[in-house]
Amino acid sequence: MQFSKSALILTSLFTLLSLPVWADTWVDDFAKEMKATAKKKKLPGLAFVMVAPNEPTRFEFYGKTEKSGTLIDKETVFRLASVSKTFTAVFMAKQVKEKKLTWQNSLQELLPDYKFDNYTDTPILLQHIIGQSTGFIPNAYDNLIEANYKLPRVLHHLEKLDSLCKPGICYTYQNTFFGVLEEYYRQQKTTFAEEITNSIITPLKMPTASVGRKALMASKKWAKPHAAIDKNKWVSVRVKNNYYKYSPAAGVNASAADMEIWLKAMLLEYPDIIDKSMVDSLIKTRVKTKREMYRREWKKQLKDAHYGLGWRIYNVDDIEIIYHGGWVQGYRADVAFSPELGVGYALLMNAESNAINELTATFWKKQIEAHQSDALVGVD
């Protein structure tokens, strides 16, 4: 018996629609590859989250909170490190929407007691902090964060910087400048942690998310940080407080359960809290990030790379991937989503392993290949 091309296509579509949820073998293959990588590199633990249209959330876990600890699960809390900047960006967008701040607020307006207007004829604005385009040498005075200098002292050092370009023109990644927001809310007789919790974390009903070192360590279950002492050999280390003093840059803690909600929020499933106009303002391309184009894991597929407000924007095989990574002693974290595909991804590790770079790139490569393959099924 011979079948027409149309009949074969209909048969293929029927087969696809009849498959059980998460029948895409690539997802299972990726999960196996991820766990095999974790085992090979002897990682202490990780948590993986994937959300997709009309599918239950996919969770995968590996390892323990520490050598003698409990198994990682969806309630295990990790440090997000610089992924915190995505939370800060959304919080700022909400503050702007509620007319409590504007993207055009200058540093001088936010902290009038400091002299941020001394070194440039173009004011540094809130959008330049969140958009990593202040114009100063990248990672300015991170060494002072590492040395645990007090925040006001570091801010006074920032007053004396020489710029590389005018604000808003070039990409210059920073952590210390986020201390402006920490200090701003302190001067408002509140805290950044309290404000972002009340504005974002609590309304989204994130079950275990928090801000700060004390909050992490007070969690019912949290993944202890691990640093490498040799190749594929990890040792538990204490949680440092230095970057937590810059919580808008690196102070948020979250579990896989929290990241499921965060990804769904970015994909506009909570429009009464985080709406399309807010997300659109954050993922608009603003400054080109040339160095990202040379990342080994992405190089073959990455066609363009920019920074928006609190998020990186990658063009991967003509699909826009909105992404951010985080790294602080003992932890790595990646979060990404595609508005076009409706897919979100997060990977949390309690180890400083570069394996996360390859795993994240592989996930999106397989996801985009699956999308392109599905699209071909509908071609006449």
Automatic annotation (TrEMBL):
What region holds the Beta-lactamase-related domain? 32-354
Keyword Signal among record annotations = yes
Concerning InterPro entries, the annotation shows: Beta-lactam-related, Beta-lactam/transpept-like, Beta-lactamase-like_AB/R
Name the keywords, alphabetized: Signal
SUPFAM superfamilies attached to this UniProt entry: beta-lactamase/transpeptidase-like
Name the domain of life this protein comes from: Bacteria
Q: Signal peptide location in the record?
A: 1-23
Family, according to the entry, reads as follows: Belongs to the beta-lactamase family.
PANTHER family from the UniProt entry: BETA-LACTAMASE-LIKE 1-RELATED, PENICILLIN-BINDING PROTEIN
Name of the protein: Beta-lactamase
